[in-house]
From TrEMBL:
Taxonomy, superkingdom: Bacteria
The protein's name: Uncharacterized protein
Transmembrane region(s): 12-33, 45-69, 75-96, 131-152, 158-179
Keyword terms: Membrane, Transmembrane, Transmembrane helix
Length: 371
């Protein structure tokens, strides 16, 4: 099956899932709204509008509740599999464990609403992964089934709405389409190299978060690249991003620029969370090295994923916004303000490695911008 056919099937599957979600949500909302509006002797438009507003608010809250349930499912399944807690995030708010203490962080990843990272056990030869990766979907489905059973006792359509959102969340993560738990599970089942990359990624995260390891301290001999997959494949690109961060940490901007330029040419094949990082750091190197033509800079700044990324309140985003203000908009006042905000958010970075590379880059910007 060609890549074009696979992409077409994937997009069709995603479209079907979203269509079913909207239709199901609309049907349940219609039931609740009509029931509310017909409690009066005559059909009441005001009651219908108020009911629809409440439904929208309720659905939004329920979506986030199922994100929490999903990530808690990973947490419980990980603990049952012998993993140890590392990071738990909902939206941009998260908690990490640094050695023996917990700390709040502020960051988010494009294409994700939550995240639960755990450190795999070291004491066994074959590390389990199926339950840990399936835990989120199982949690959504179990809670949804429980809501349906409660509906039999207390028939309110809000329980149906909660169950429906949970079922949809389970399907969206349980069918291997795009960047989700089922897709990762599928990769790991098919390839021992992918398993090695996955556990290496988790252990690296543990070292970056818990043990103050920097990106440049990761040796080249440690990095696993799956030669059977393109460099844009999820696990391969993560390893490349570790290399990019190491080059930036060492202020080897020319080398980082060359590597990022090659990745940028293939960036549409990269999953959204890593795509935004490639675009950000490519633009960063392009501007500070004065290598970008106006058309390239305009293309990057108009990228919708990148524009969404720029709305996030985290150190690396404030850093790139400061560079844009200084080099593109010729606004020194705004650039200095954003640089100060980046410094203020430095301690909220998710890992020591992130803090270190950003600390070095921010100090470098202070020098070259003469602030």
């Amino acid at each position: 099956m060609t890549k074009k056919v696979k992409d077409s099937l994937k997009n069709t599957g995603i479209l079907i899932l979203y269509s079913l979600f909207i239709l199901g949500l609309g049907f349940i909302a219609y039931r609740i709204g009509i029931e509310s509006a017909t409690r009066y002797e005559e059909f009441n438009v005001g009651a219908l509008l108020m009911s629809m507003g409440l439904i929208i608010l309720s659905a939004t809250v329920m979506v986030y509740l199922h994100v929490v349930i999903h990530e808690l499912g990973h947490l419980v399944a990980g603990l049952l599999s012998g993993y140890t807690f590392m990071l738990f995030r909902i939206g941009s708010f998260g908690i990490i464990k640094e050695e023996k203490k917990f700390k709040t962080i502020s960051f988010s990843m494009s294409g994700t609403m939550g995240q639960c990272l755990m450190n795999p056990p070291e004491s066994i030869s074959e590390v389990p992964y199926r339950l840990y990766l399936s835990g989120g979907v199982l949690a959504n489905l179990i809670v949804s089934i429980g809501s349906v059973l409660l509906y039999a006792v207390n028939p309110t359509d809000y329980l149906l709405l909660f169950a429906f959102i949970g079922l949809t969340s389970g399907l969206m993560n349980g069918i291997p389409i795009g960047f989700n738990d089922a897709k990762v599970l599928s990769k790991l089942r098919k390839s021992n190299v992918a398993q090695d990359q996955f556990f290496q990624q988790l252990r690296w995260n543990g070292q970056f978060i818990r043990y103050n390891k920097t990106y440049s301290e990761v040796g080249k001999e440690e990095k696993i690249i799956n030669a059977q997959e393109p460099i844009t494949e999820q696990f391969n690109i993560y390893t490349k991003l570790i290399e990019m961060s190491s080059l930036l940490e060492q202020k080897q901007f020319e080398e980082a620029y060359q590597e990022l330029a090659e990745l940028y040419d293939q960036v549409q094949a990269v999953i959204a969370p890593y795509r935004s990082e490639i675009i950000r750091e490519y633009l960063y190197c392009t501007l500070i090295l004065d290598k970008g033509n106006p058309q390239l800079v305009k293309e990057i700044r108009s990228n919708r994923l990148f524009q969404d990324h720029l709305k996030r309140k985290q150190v690396d985003v404030y850093r790139i916004r400061s560079v844009i203000a200084y080099y593109c908009d010729n606004n020194r006042v705004e650039a200095e303000k954003l640089l100060s905000q980046a410094v203020d958010h430095l301690d909220k970075a998710p890992a020591f490695a992130d803090k270190e590379v950003n600390r070095i880059l921010l100090n470098h910007l202070k020098d070259i911008m003469a602030f």
